[in-house]
Design a protein that fits this description.
Chain lengths: 415, 415
Amino acid sequence: MTVELISVGTEILLGNIVNTNAAYLAEKCALLGLSCYHQSAVGDNEERLEDAIKLALSRSDIVILSGGLGPTKDDITKEVTAKVFGREIKEDAHTKARIQEYFRQVHSGQITPNNWKQAMVPEGAIVVDNHNGTAPGLIIEENGKAAILLPGPPNEIKPMFERDIASYLNKLQPEGIYSKMVKICSVGESKAETMVADLMDAQTNPTLAPYAKTGEVHFRVTARAKSEEEAEQLMKPMVDELYKRFGDKIYTTEEEVTLEEAIVELLKEKNLLVTTAESCTGGLLAGRLLNVPGASSVYKEGYITYSNDAKERILGVKRETLMEYGAVSPQTAYEMAAGAAKAAGADAALSVTGIAGPGGGTKEKPVGLVYIGCCVKGNVRVEEFYFTGSRDKNRDYSVVRALTLLREELLKHHS
Amino acid sequence: MTVELISVGTEILLGNIVNTNAAYLAEKCALLGLSCYHQSAVGDNEERLEDAIKLALSRSDIVILSGGLGPTKDDITKEVTAKVFGREIKEDAHTKARIQEYFRQVHSGQITPNNWKQAMVPEGAIVVDNHNGTAPGLIIEENGKAAILLPGPPNEIKPMFERDIASYLNKLQPEGIYSKMVKICSVGESKAETMVADLMDAQTNPTLAPYAKTGEVHFRVTARAKSEEEAEQLMKPMVDELYKRFGDKIYTTEEEVTLEEAIVELLKEKNLLVTTAESCTGGLLAGRLLNVPGASSVYKEGYITYSNDAKERILGVKRETLMEYGAVSPQTAYEMAAGAAKAAGADAALSVTGIAGPGGGTKEKPVGLVYIGCCVKGNVRVEEFYFTGSRDKNRDYSVVRALTLLREELLKHHS
């Protein structure tokens, strides 16, 4: 079954926004086993939109249109699609009531007349409720083809797709597609792929596919099945096998859980406080950990120690260490981590010292050389890295490597 | 003159990558005065790519293809385009020499045979050197139409467009389009637009258009002219007028300069050291300042003080202040900024304390309430903000507001 995406909006054609909806929908459709051979973007122009819809319906089974469902005159996706299918547009009482309720809750009832435009629905269309806005999703079916109209704002289209569109698409196919994300750290991408090469070769149902993410490896396990329960049963042996091979290097099998969330959870479980002492990452490591709502129960304070003086005074790094080995050295990373834990009265500490670039490199200590220290209950481990990216990339990788190192050391620690 | 974009690559159709090239090219083309009515994406499939190119050439003057110029068999953009134009493909000695030189420098000479594929060029095509990779850009002209083939990696396509493609497109038109970005902080978006409403209404050549960016306002001044010098002359009165109205709230007129770079520059000029004391932003403010290479000359150390204890112990915030007014209060922000400057021995300090959400809000202190303090040479100013976004957004806005506040106070300070 083939699907085609049409993004509607002049702001896309002008490059004012990046079309993240297309990537989102494309990925979701691929995961549902649909083949997508075409994506296009057109403006809010009747003639060109009509041509685009007709072309898409001529070559694909399902056409997903996003955007152009707003209340203004510019928004014509619904009207043009109805025209292509030869359908009248009529007011839908259910949608009208929902819009009324939405405005009562969100805008204290201030509805402008043009909002009622969004209650108008093509005859015979399936109405998909919008729980995050006023434009409903619409599905028009005819002759084994379907046009699915979705609102443009990412915070509306995504929950609508997850909640209703994915299951609609799954029902169109003899078997639905279900998947699980197994997220792994502490193993390099190519090593991880080698470790499951046999599983990837032998795969039929479920299948296994790697996804690279800065410093992590994610494997998606995908099953075709008649129901979610059947899919779960099919996926379980594969997930179990991955656990057998990667063990506790798997930090989650939940789509939405991030590495920093898993680590904050681990710290909470073990009832440990963590701190950070950063040189080249300059606050990004702390910023990432503190992305997690509620991280305040495991993180009380941290330090950005750019200068040698700060490393000495705040963290207690010895002057001789700095003189003899330099600020970018395993010895300094060691003392930074141990000193940070002490200064913050924390059970665990991460330290990062390195040369992010573009300047500051030497032959002995090139740009990209980073030392990361991790102290848990007085035990300090230091790792050396040579990153080869831009300043941004080197700092990003340093942050992920530091988090990974902390997780490894936390798992070793039994309270 | 119309332009159309075709993005080539299965990774786009599968949603594995977000198509930022399309947004980049669309914006650049719009700035050059070209009209873009269609964007599309197709995979590395001969038949569908051929159809896409033919359709695009049938309705647009210029077709820009990105991606599919790599050395592998999958990469077929050049071959299919040459077929559409009926051109042979032959080895280009100049490109071959460049590839040889590139590998000598970057990969110690390790060329694999398939790399020579990238030296093959359609007959009569204009070759555009790639200074960041091995695939040259190619332009094929015929009957007043042109196909422009560009490499897919953003770090190759962008410099190639800036360096050579923009001027090529400008030459196709009777007058070229040139522009300048005037970047403003400390003025809200709608106020800034009101302040120049007359200029925007009266505009012909140059034109003035606002671009919103988190916490900043950018105005693009665009002129049509026969040469860059003529454009400069046309734009100067408009830029002067903007300076008259916004004064030192304009922090740069250079496309590439960021707010944090402008501030680091200002600190260097005034020979001042800065530090940061962060609660809800948790290191992101420091991380942003330290994005700037060479920031180490103006930033030596900083603090993440999440807990009350850390605010007291590290920054010297008085216990009574925390007890009486709470951690999220103007009084605490004041003492955090003053205390941070003292602790770090810095001339200037920024403090941020607030409720980023989603939890932690009360009726008196709702989610989104943030106090930012700025201390320069002992003078402290505190500002109150109510942000209304997600945790991420609230933290991002806090960072920009803090930077803006610092800039304002630095400008007041005469050493």
